[in-house]
Amino acid sequence: MRVLVPFDGRTPCSRLAPVLDSEERRALATRLRDDVLDAVRAAGGRPELLATEPVDVGVSVTVDDRSLSAAVNAALTGEPTAVVMADLALATPRALSRLFTASGDVVIAPGRGGGTNALVVRHPDFRVDYHGASCRDHRRRAHEVGATLRELDSHRLATDIDEPGDLAELLLHSDGRAARWLRDAGFQLSTGDGRVAVERHP
Amino acid sequence: MRVLVPFDGRTPCSRLAPVLDSEERRALATRLRDDVLDAVRAAGGRPELLATEPVDVGVSVTVDDRSLSAAVNAALTGEPTAVVMADLALATPRALSRLFTASGDVVIAPGRGGGTNALVVRHPDFRVDYHGASCRDHRRRAHEVGATLRELDSHRLATDIDEPGDLAELLLHSDGRAARWLRDAGFQLSTGDGRVAVERHP
Predict the structure, then answer these.
(1) What are the chain A neighbours of B168 within 8 Å (beta carbons)?
(2) Contact at CB, B113 and A162, closer than 8 angstroms
(3) Considering the domain boundaries, does residue A171 fall inside one?
(4) pLDDT tens digits, residue range B85-95?
(5) What was the ipTM of the complex prediction?
(6) Residue A198's beta-bridge partner residues?
(7) Considering the domain boundaries, does residue A56 fall inside one?
(8) Mutate: best of B129, B136, B196, partner A, most A CBs <10 A
(9) What are phi and psi for residue A14, nearest 5 degrees?
(10) Whole domain around residue B92: which residue ranges?
(11) Which of A87, A116, A141, B86 might form a disulfide with B33, Cβ 3.0–4.6 angstroms?
């Protein structure tokens, strides 16, 4: 399946600013992206990067510096297409296979906090809108255009690496490039009374 | 399948104290629990409440006021048993069916933050330890006793209603008792730049 992977090369991982400086955020973002590209290929997908600026990563790259929604909609050509965010570092080939093979004109993998971390579009009239609680909006849009909808229940696809709390998920559930980079940067799990967090020992 | 549902009737949902007073936390907790019991039954499970104090909910109740781990281990009798936390308000019959039917001597559904929100035990020597990053510890323990391990990838089972940020998940993905109670209490989604949050309008 054709798989668009949107990647913001300008200000990636901006909400990690409390724990990583801008050069570190860029370093982490490229590793997150490369982990995702690997998993897409291992799941049998054909990744295409949809980037805000030119980048050399060994896959087809379309440069489009408009908003995420405008760029994705312009790239939907009618061919069945998956859209997988570049920061889904927990995405395994197995989780992506479930996504690619799920039936439905539109398949949504909701992200934590109401986003749409991954989806499959097989209906010609469906368009994305990533603003706000997009998983809710995408449900409604699928209904409006008469598309059958399936929601995929996956913690791995629900977990984008967006906020500092997400880094614990990376250390708990991945051994990819991004997780190794994070460990090398001194991050480790910190267990207390509630959920596990991360702490840094440079 | 036999399904233990541990329920803390003394100080439930204590980490929601920033947004709910103690009477409200108790009201929400009973609705979370009843939603979980409904979903377990709809998935073909036979729920048994494992409670810190006597409670009348129409299912078999074992009262054990020791720690969660001690109480669960005492209730593991050798019969294949699932343990499903009482605050998994997004748990659907479908998600629980995936859990109950997954193969493996031990099946773990990790929670956000490294917990073990749900598991199935089919090995006589496996014991739980819910302290800290328990999903990691449970992986190791399964290996130590020679049990085959399966991890279940589910956002619905990964989402326990533990911290204020989790309330958005409840409003986004559930229409059960707990979600309705939360809406009636004035909570609604608040969309901004990042993840969706909740705000209260009493």
Answers:
(1) 113-114
(2) no
(3) no
(4) 999 999 999 99
(5) 0.95
(6) A189
(7) yes
(8) B196
(9) -60, -30
(10) 2-162
(11) B86
